[in-house]
Amino acid sequence: MSAERDWASLVPTFDMFDPEHEEWKYDGFAWAREHCPIIHGSPPSTGPRSIVTRYADVRQILEDPETFSSAGSPPVPAPIRLGALDADPPEHTAFRRLLNPVFTRQFALQFEPDMRAYARELIDAWVDRGEVEMLGEFASPYVARILARMVFDETDMDKMERAKQVVIRVAERPDDEGFFDLAVLSAEYLAAAIDNPPEREGMLRQLVTGEFLDGKPMTEDQAMGAIASTFLGGLDTSRSAIAAICLLIAQQPELEERVRDPRWIRNDMDEFIRLISPVASLGRIATRDTEVGGCPVKQGEHLLLRFDSANRDETKFPNADQLQFEPPRTGTAGFGLGIHRCIGMHLARVQIAVAMEEIFARVTNFKLAVPPEEITWAPGIANCPHAVPLRFDRVL
Ligand code: HEM
Question: Is the CB of 229 under 6 A from ligand 1?
Answer without folding.
Answer: yes
